[in-house]
Specification:
This is Acyltransferase 3 domain-containing protein. This protein is an all-alpha fold. It has 16 helices and no strands. α2 runs antiparallel to α4, α4 crosses α12 and α5 packs antiparallel against α15.
């Protein structure tokens, strides 16, 4: 990394103490990337609900789309950070951004699935849905993957990251490039340390039990276990804002990511990759995703065009949050009707046989979800977010008007 401390006659401590200047570039390509990550998560859930032959090992890699969202979230929040922004206004904007669609994503599947829930389980299922709406789901190990919409756990993680960010954004931007480089290395080591500790505490097995795994579940899905991914995005954005430029272009960064995914695919039969809670997918992909995000951001900053920044990709990216929260519900409702399954857990305990006949149902689910999330975005998500931002999230920094970055939305 090249530090601005090398400029002639600059005080040695200045780069570490002074906040970086907010860039004036809107990073549309990152919005396009959000759609790819959301679609990867969709493919991952196909392997359980509507499996296709010979695709499981590849589609399962799509679970890392959540890791991508965490890294990208930290990057975008830091990229748009303004010194002096009030914490209350920041929290208001985050609430406006994530809560309206989260409420739909948690309550819609509850309404659809509640009639089939056994009487003795009704109260628990309702509490799980309420915990998701209140952004608490990821703090209760037994509920993280339970309930009627397993994907909502990641929003509880995001809420925790948001709670900390007002105290982290400015701090990161006041660090030197050398400090940020060291922090990136430490964060990756922490990620691997968590995984290795879990392997020691819960030795990987090909067919893990679904009981007695609360510590393992919490160690994989909780905000504490995943914050290093978010912080990696924060550090990457702070470094870019302070003048660092990655030597990897988009092609090279994408190639490195593809190589990492290829290695994971080649090791697909290893015990530590046999079940998602043991998988080191996030540990491998988080730093690689950070490199891709930086490379794509640099390309946008240089003014070069990108297919990721075209209008269709930006539209899809804007719809991706609703897509992420609603796709599992659509997939489950279709798969449940096709295979006469009454609960989500039945798909995991009694796997569906892979068949190319499921391809048509998968395409139907994709079409319905895309249409639904487009409508949700147009008539509910975006209008309500804008109204809530006016009431709750006004920034007091005049530079927002001149940069146009108030519209740069955090990818969840």
């Amino acid at each position: 990394m090249t530090s601005s401390a090398s400029r002639p006659k600059s005080p040695p401590a200045a780069p570490a103490a002074a906040p970086a200047t907010l860039p004036g570039t809107r990073l549309n390509s990152l919005t396009g990337l959000r759609w790819i990550a959301a679609f990867a998560v969709f493919l991952n859930h196909l392997t359980t609900l509507l499996p296709l032959p010979h695709t499981d090992a590849v589609f399962a890699l799509g679970a890392s789309g959540v890791t991508f969202f965490f890294v990208l979230s930290g990057f975008v929040l830091t990229w748009t950070y303004l010194e002096g922004d009030r914490a209350g206004a920041f929290y208001g904007r985050r609430f406006a951004r994530i809560w309206p669609v989260l409420a739909v994503g948690a309550l819609l599947p509850l309404a659809l699935q509640l009639p089939g829930v056994p009487d003795g389980e009704t109260g628990k299922v309702v509490l799980m849905a309420v915990s998701a709406v209140l952004l608490l789901q990821a703090w209760v190990p037994g509920w993280i993957l339970g309930g009627t919409s397993p994907v909502t756990w990641s929003l509880a993680c995001e809420a925790f990251f948001y709670a900390l960010f007002p105290f982290l954004g400015g701090f990161a931007l006041r660090r030197s490039l050398r400090w940020l480089a060291g922090a990136a290395v430490v964060l990756v080591l922490i990620g691997w340390g968590i995984k290795v500790w879990l392997w020691e505490a819960y030795p990987p097995q090909a067919r893990p039990a679904f009981t007695g795994m609360d510590g393992l579940i919490f160690g994989v899905y909780s905000p504490i276990a995943r914050i290093w991914e978010f912080l990696l995005g924060v550090v990457a954005a702070a470094a870019v804002r302070k003048g660092w430029r990655s030597p990897l272009g988009t092609g090279a960064a994408t190639t490195v990511l593809a190589a990492g995914l290829l290695v994971l695919w080649l090791l697909r039969d290893e015990t530590w990759r046999a079940f998602v809670v043991y998988d080191a997918l996030g540990q491998v992909t988080a730093p690689l995703y950070a490199l891709v995000v930086v490379a794509v951001a640099q390309r946008d900053m240089s003014g070069r065009s990108s297919w990721l920044g075209t209008r269709p990709m930006v539209f899809l990216g804007e719809w991706s949050y609703a897509f992420y929260l609603l796709h599992f519900t659509v997939l489950f409702e279709i798969a449940s009707a096709v295979f006469d399954r009454k609960s989500i857990i039945e798909f995991y305990l009694m796997p569906v046989e892979a068949s190319w006949s499921n391809a048509g149902w998968a395409l139907l689910a994709l079409g319905i979800t895309t249409t639904l999330c487009a409508l949700v975005y147009r008539f509910y998500e975006r209008p309500l977010e804008l109204r809530l931002r006016v009431r709750l999230g006004r920034r007091n920094a005049p530079r927002v008007e001149s940069t146009g970055l108030e519209a740069q939305r955090d990818p969840v």
